[in-house]
Design brief:
Structural class: alpha/beta
CATH architecture: 2-Layer Sandwich
Strand order of the largest sheet: 1-2-3-4-5
Order of helices and strands: EEHEHEHEH
Number of domains: 1
Largest sheet: 5 strands, mixed
């Protein structure tokens, strides 16, 4: 999994690419935890280039959401494909973390 971090004022955008699975979960956790440790608690995860998410990736998202919420922050996700959307729906993740069709809509919700 690849990622690109963009800090735009109070909002941190993390653009992800590839698969979020057991092989990439540690890197994902390290990146996100580091951002939260540095006070970046208003975050958008852009899934426009994420092809697949496994159970380990779902756990990392839940952990991230809980941690950001405990810091009085906000976490949004945008641009998920049909495969990822199906997985989110099966486990109910889309009812826990707000998911938006576009980056623009997600950013509006974070502002």
């Amino acid at each position: 999994m690849e990622h690109n971090v963009i800090i735009d004022g109070d909002i941190t955008i993390v653009e992800l690419a590839g698969n979020i699975d057991i092989a990439s979960a540690a890197s994902f956790d390290e990146t996100i935890s580091g951002l939260i440790d540095n006070g970046q608690t208003t975050m958008l995860l852009d899934f426009s280039r994420v092809e697949f998410i496994a159970s380990m990736g779902l756990r990392m998202l839940l952990k991230t959401g809980q941690r950001i919420e405990s810091e009085d922050g906000k976490l949004h996700i945008c641009c998920i494909n049909d495969t990822v959307s199906s997985v989110f729906g099966m486990v109910g993740l889309d009812t826990i973390i707000p998911v938006f069709e576009t980056k623009e809509l997600a950013l509006e919700g974070l502002a």
